[in-house]
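Here is an idea for our session: we take a single protein and study its fold together. To get us started, please write out a protein record for me. Start from the sequence, derive the backbone structure tokens from it, and show both lines together. Go ahead whenever you are ready, and we will take it from there:
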Amino acid sequence: MRMTRTGQYVETITFGTRTEARRMAARVRGLHRQLSGVEETTGRSYRVDDPDLLLWVHNCAVDSLLSTALRAGLPLSAEDADTYVLEQVAAARLVGVAEEVAPRTVADLDAYFGAIRPELALTPAASDGVRRLFVPPMKGWVQVLTPARPAWGTFVSLGFATLPVWARQMFSMPGLSLTDSAATAALRAFRAALLAVPQRARWSPIVRAGYARVGERPAA
């Protein structure tokens, strides 16, 4: 459910109207204001809308989407990649990230991750979250009568394999990830298979509406 909501958020911010994007972002900010906790290993009290956490989520999303697109075979130049990062400053601002700290180029993104890596550590909550992602709860009949479990496992394994090597190593789960070259090949095959699906089935209504507003066909 959470992954579905995240996908809907990204689609709305990317393809929705300005009103739709602002409304969705306001809803997310409202949820963030209600959530807080204590980090179990450091004892740090935090709010979900703390500036450093918002920046982390934004940068991870931008880097993940861009690197996956490139590895899947989208013909993007270095200038295209920088343009994408710059465009995402608007998305950062909508969710509450200060505009002056949002990255504007791929080099800015790389610098951010290079600077923050020494501060990162694997917590029990993060480890448990990843393991539950690989083996989510499913009804018995779904596991027995459908291919949902193996299909989901394959999909999540591919997603995990797209993480940077240093991030995968932190989770100490090498047996559940593909090599970089195998992951890239799998992404290209997945994209090729997806392109064979009719656009009406491949794209959600909000994506189709976004392309219709600008008078373009959905990009391959």
User: Anything to note?
Assistant: Residues 2-121+204-213 form one domain. The two ends are 27 Å apart (CA to CA). The mean pLDDT is 87.
